[in-house]
Design goal:
Elements lengths: L5 E3 L6 E3 L9 E3 L6 E4 L5 H20 L3 E5 L2 E5 L1 H10 L3 H31 L6 H11 L5 H15 L4 E4 L1 H18 L5 H13 L6 H14 L13
Antiparallel strand pairs: 1-2, 3-4, 5-6, 5-7
């Protein structure tokens, strides 16, 4: 059993030689416990790439516009997510501000940018630099992105503030709602399956291309030119 073609079940830790998904098969399952070993990602690259790009644009909209506007006795106030973080920092709640920043801005943005960094080149037929490190970074930051938790907290706050002031939803609130649904789709994609596609691309590039008749003719012409008499310079020597 070759060591570079092994896969371990994440549930029962049984070691298998990695099976190939042929035909209509899209999922490989452990024959011992029935857990999913891996899924084929080649057919989903277009969809997940489009969804990740749309999520990135929606994320930028959610950060640029106010979330809600409060109107209490003619006094209105509104703020963005970054403005709320600045307010937390100024209120001597630096730890809370850093945690919210990481969970709602840094880690989700890192995951989206890293996914696009590996998805776009893979769709184009080549493996980008630092491919393995980027996939590991995605797996590391994914559990810490908590857009859905933030959205739930915003909704609870809006319900409580309705009795105190008039709450006017702004563009960022709808953007965060759409982003929550988009992230649910993105998170369902397992980035580890991209390793299989990268292996296939690497093997395809390492495989020598078949020699055509045109290639053979060109090689013969080049050999004749190079082997010309010393008194008459050949075309390669003349550039």
């Amino acid at each position: 059993m070759e060591h570079d073609n092994l896969i371990a079940c994440h549930e029962c830790d049984t070691l298998f030689q990695k099976p190939r998904l042929l035909g209509s098969r899209t999922v490989a399952r452990c024959p011992r416990c029935g857990a999913t070993l891996y899924r084929s990602a080649s057919r989903r690259l277009d969809g997940i790439s489009a969804m990740t790009l749309a999520a990135l644009f929606t994320f930028l909209i959610a950060q640029a516009y106010p979330i809600v506007e409060l109107d209490a006795n003619g006094i209105t106030s509104q703020t963005t997510l970054f403005g709320a973080l600045v307010a937390l920092w100024n209120e001597d709640m630096q730890i809370v501000a850093v945690m919210v920043f990481c969970a709602t801005i840094l880690f989700p943005l890192t995951e989206l940018v890293a996914l696009l960094y590996v998805l776009i080149p893979i769709r184009s037929g080549y493996v980008p630099a630092g491919f393995n490190q980027v996939l590991r970074a995605i797996q590391f930051v994914r559990p810490w992105g908590m857009i859905e938790v933030f959205m739930l907290g915003v909704l609870i706050t809006i319900v409580k503030m309705v009795s105190l002031a008039r709450v006017i939803p702004e563009a960022a609130l709808f953007a965060f709602g759409a982003l929550t649904l988009m992230f649910a789709v993105v998170v369902m994609f397992d980035p580890r399956t991209l390793w299989d596609i990268a292996d296939e691309l690497s093997a395809r590039r390492a495989r020598p291309l078949p020699r055509t008749s045109a290639d053979s003719a060109a090689a013969a012409v080049a050999a004749n030119l190079t082997a010309s008499p010393s008194g008459q310079p050949s075309a390669p020597h003349q550039g």
